[in-house]
Write a structure and sequence with these properties.
259 residues; SH3 type barrels; Fumarylacetoacetate hydrolase, domain 2; 2 domains; 12-stranded mixed sheet; 4-stranded antiparallel sheet; 3 helices
């Protein structure tokens, strides 16, 4: 199932794509486990409309985005940092959320703003102290993300909040793909259509189930919360007027500009 959040006739809806139609709902979809099988469904479907008539918004509105730093070996090496023995976590605020197609704002405090392509896990159920072997029962699906970073404001050691938290620094989209194995997906970044990052989620140091287990021991993950799983090597700066795209196999392409 391909789940979206969209604007239709001045109202925000959730929904899912079916051929060239969107089935709209007022609510986030629900997850049920039946005979060890996961079912994703909408409780209140309100209308069917042409996909061409809706405008895509960020596919969820997280209460928090839990981000994982240095989760690709090659990315840690390109910054001369040690491979972590446990996940390195930080949080982006909900105010950094940005929809597909909307502009990333270049903050006046920074002189270097970088792209960081990431696979993003979207939670579908409240998760606390979840065992890794049951982790996928709590996952709604996956989307593309860009962990935009003011690199000149990010010290090598210590606090990353300032560099990661500006408004518009968390583009997500274009939708949530529910039927996906996240263990080996090709991930690419394009800057003005020139390839910049290329890797696979098979290169993650900590995979999706182990991240959910670890994070849910620390904090409750709410429905709609996201885990940004880390970026591979090849990160680099964006300039005003640039166009940046994050493309992940099985999901699609997230496009934004910089202004």
């Amino acid at each position: 199932m391909r789940i979206i959040r969209c604007l239709y006739e001045d109202t925000i809806y959730f929904g899912y794509i079916e051929d060239d139609l969107v089935i709209l709902s007022k609510d986030l979809p629900r997850i049920e486990i039946h005979n060890h099988e996961k079912k994703v469904w909408f409780e209140r479907e309100v209308a069917k409309v042409p996909f061409a008539k809706v405008f895509l918004e960020a596919p969820c509105v997280p209460t928090k985005a839990v981000c994982v730093g240095l989760n690709y070996r090659d990315h840690a090496e390109e910054f001369g940092l040690k491979i972590p023995s446990s996940p390195v976590l930080f949080i982006k605020p909900s105010t950094s959320l940005l929809s597909p197609g909307k502009p990333i704002h270049y903050p006046t405090l920074s002189r270097q703003v970088d792209y960081e392509a990431e696979l993003v896990v979207v939670m579908g159920k409240s998760a606390k102290n979840v065992d890794a072997k049951h982790a996928f029962d709590y996952v709604l699906g996956y989307t593309c993300g860009n962990d935009v970073t003011a690199r000149d404001l990010q010290p090598k050691d210590g606090q990353w909040t300032v560099a990661k938290s500006f408004d518009t620094f968390m583009p997500l989209g274009p939708w949530i793909e529910t039927d996906l194995d996240p263990s080996s997906l090709k991930l690419r970044t394009y800057l003005n259509d020139e390839p910049k990052q290329f890797s696979s989620t098979s290169n993650l140091i900590f995979d999706v189930p182990s991240l959910i287990e670890y994070i849910s021991q620390i904090m409750t993950l709410n429905p709609g919360d996201v885990i940004m799983t880390g970026t591979p090597s090849g990160v680099g700066p964006m300039q005003k007027g640039d166009h940046v795209s994050v493309e992940i196999e099985g999901i699609g392409r997230l496009d934004n500009t910089v202004e």
